């Protein structure tokens, strides 16, 4: 099968969707011998879509683990004007404000629609909203009569980003839609999307890599010994709510002053704000914060293995691959009781849920798990089994490929 994947970024660009598309692409090539081309941008970070001072990769085509990756240039000028028009139209409820918001987000890519149409692919798969490349994929696929599968990864709590009529019209025009959770499926059905068009596939993880991880060297390197370690391993952006975690940890340290906090992830402009918040902590608490930025991907399993609890306070997650990675290492997780997250974590079995933006509730949950090592182990084991049974990349790739086949058949029957 000849498959075209359209995505806003591809490794070494960092992000959950980038990682998902990379693993799907490589699985389809290695396990099914499909011919996969990825059409993407030169951006390392989405900030590049509106900031010309951000670094970028070169325009061009390369082979990566059997996948053909074609990176296109992005027009990132006039953002102040684009943002002004988008914000003004949104506040005034003017017609087409969803289009203006999408143009403000970008990426503005001249020639992507044509590239999709000229791909001669058997199926086009595009991820994820709310970015503009999704509409290039739709326009190009329709121009060439190619079946289209969309994966939206909708963050339902983000109304600015995802409450856009044009997005639901695009989903209705696609041949198939992939939801990451049952919550996302039900959300779309309530907005008029046909149930038979939606397939729930979940997210995936390279389970073997995490299962064989060794956290002992990490504990030795940072001098943690046998002290408890709470971790947030995620891209350093505001929506991950590092602020809520740092506030919660102050309450945790009052009860358990020996607890270590690990903050690890790819740096962004927001990293400076995280560093500022840490600097405002009392000196004895600062000494228990370990901030590790831009570590090698191969190091992530060992970092997670070295921890006792993995926390993700973000309320803007379409799934939360961080939970799978923690479970693959046999660790319990704490997420927030909002949106898709509550359909990912089986509360009380493989993790705990807390109120969104509630530092007191988060501190309570952390202390509850720190006080009960046996319960932590039981939750970690339950999560590990969930990953092996439902969330390895080969399982996810097979599910996606089945959707592609169904989309091709549906398109042929139109």
Description:
The protein has 414 residues and is of the alpha/beta class. It folds into 2 domains: 2-204 and 392-412, Glycogen Phosphorylase B (Rossmann fold); 207-390, Glycogen Phosphorylase B (Rossmann fold, 3-Layer(aba) Sandwich). The chain contains 19 helices and 14 strands. The strands form 2 sheets. The protein has an 8-stranded mixed sheet with strand order 3-4-2-1-5-6-7-8, with helices on both faces. The two termini are 20 Å apart.
Write a brief structural summary.
The chain is an alpha/beta fold.
Q: Could you name the key traits of this structure?
A:
single chain; 414 residues; alpha/beta; Rossmann fold; 2 domains; 8-stranded mixed sheet; 6-stranded parallel sheet
- Spatial shape: globular
State the end-to-end CA separation: 20 Å
Strands in their spatial order, largest beta sheet: 3-4-2-1-5-6-7-8
Architecture (CATH level 2) name of the largest domain: 3-Layer(aba) Sandwich
Mean model confidence by pLDDT: 95
Q: Proportion of β residues?
A: 15-25%
Number of strands: 14
CATH topology of the largest domain: Rossmann fold
* Helix/strand/pairing category: alpha/beta
Number of domains: 2
Low-confidence stretches: none
How are the elements arranged and paired?
Elements: E1 2-7, H1 16-32, E2 35-41, E3 60-64, E4 67-72, H2 79-91, H3 97-105, H4 112-117, E5 123-127, H5 133-144, E6 148-151, H6 159-162, H7 165-173, E7 176-179, H8 182-189, E8 198-200, H9 207-211, H10 216-222, E9 229-233, H11 242-255, E10 260-265, H12 271-279, H13 283-286, E11 289-293, H14 300-305, E12 309-311, H15 321-328, E13 333-336, H16 341-344, E14 351-354, H17 359-370, H18 373-390, H19 393-412
Parallel strand pairs: 1-2, 1-5, 2-4, 5-6, 6-7, 7-8, 9-10, 9-12, 10-11, 12-13, 13-14
Antiparallel strand pairs: 3-4
């Amino acid at each position: 099968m000849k498959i075209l994947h359209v995505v806003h970024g591809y490794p070494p660009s960092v992000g959950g969707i980038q990682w998902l598309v990379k693993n799907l692409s490589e699985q389809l090539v290695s396990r099914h011998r499909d011919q996969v081309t990825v059409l993407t941008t030169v951006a390392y970070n989405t900030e590049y879509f509106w900031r010309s001072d951000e670094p970028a990769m070169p325009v061009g085509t390369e082979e990566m683990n059997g996948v053909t990756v074609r990176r296109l240039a992005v027009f990132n000028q006039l953002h102040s004007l684009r943002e002004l028009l988008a914000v003004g139209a949104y506040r005034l409820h003017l017609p087409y404000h969803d289009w203006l918001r999408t143009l403000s987000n970008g990426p503005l890519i001249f020639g992507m629609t044509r590239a999709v149409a000229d791909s001669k692919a058997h199926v086009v798969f595009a991820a994820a909203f709310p970015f503009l490349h999704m509409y290039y994929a739709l326009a190009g696929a329709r121009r060439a009569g190619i079946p289209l599968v969309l994966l939206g990864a909708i963050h339902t709590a983000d109304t600015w980003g995802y409450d856009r009529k044009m997005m639901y019209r695009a989903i209705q025009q696609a041949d198939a839609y992939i939801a990451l959770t049952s919550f996302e499926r039900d959300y779309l059905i309530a907005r008029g999307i046909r149930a038979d068009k939606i397939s729930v596939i979940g997210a995936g993880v390279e389970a073997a890599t995490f299962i064989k991880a060794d956290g002992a060297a990490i504990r030795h390197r940072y001098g943690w010994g046998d002290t408890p370690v709470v971790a947030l391993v995620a891209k350093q952006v505001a929506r991950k709510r590092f602020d809520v975690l740092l506030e919660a940890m102050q309450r945790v340290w009052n009860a358990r002053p020996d607890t270590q906090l690990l903050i690890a992830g790819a740096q962004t402009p927001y990293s400076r704000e995280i560093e500022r918040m840490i600097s405002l902590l009392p000196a004895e608490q600062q000494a228990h914060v370990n901030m590790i930025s831009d570590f090698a991907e191969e190091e992530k399993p060992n970092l997670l293995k070295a921890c006792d609890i993995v926390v993700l306070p973000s309320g803007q997650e379409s799934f939360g691959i961080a939970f799978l990675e923690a479970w693959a290492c046999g660790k319990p997780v704490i997420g927030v009781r909002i949106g898709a997250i509550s359909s990912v974590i089986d509360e009380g079995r493989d993790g705990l849920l807390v109120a969104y933006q509630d530092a007191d509730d988060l501190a309570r949950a952390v202390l509850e798990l720190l006080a009960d090592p046996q319960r932590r182990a039981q939750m970690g084991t339950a999560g590990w089994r969930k990953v092996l049974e439902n969330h390895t990349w080969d399982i996810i790739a097979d599910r996606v490929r089945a959707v592609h086949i169904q989309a091709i058949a549906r398109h042929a029957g139109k």
